[in-house]
Design brief:
The chain contains four helices and no strands. It is mainly alpha-helical and 124 residues long.
Length: 124
Amino acid sequence: MSQSFYQYSFEKLKAWERSKELVKTIYKAVKTIPDEEKFGMISQMKRASISISSNLAEGSARKTSKDQAYFTTISYGSLMELLNLTIVAFELEYISEKTYLDIRAQIQEISAMLNSLRSAQLNS
């Protein structure tokens, strides 16, 4: 059964699409982190990752470009929080080098997209 739905503006954003993919990567990656970190690092990494795409979605509903840029900035902050947590997880040997490099590459790509999006929002 194929059903057609209205596509909301955030669903058209490449940054949202990529950040959604990053969530999946993080949820898989944290499975290697020790259970004692379940309510610490694991929870924080999951929340930071989902915050990126969620703030893009919320910001898309705002009326002014300035308000939209504010939520893009929050998304960027969550992205940097996730990068910090990823670095620490790697240094503690909770995640492999391959996983670390994969996450970093995704973060770098999303970072550039968010910076471009924010610039466009502020200049419109």
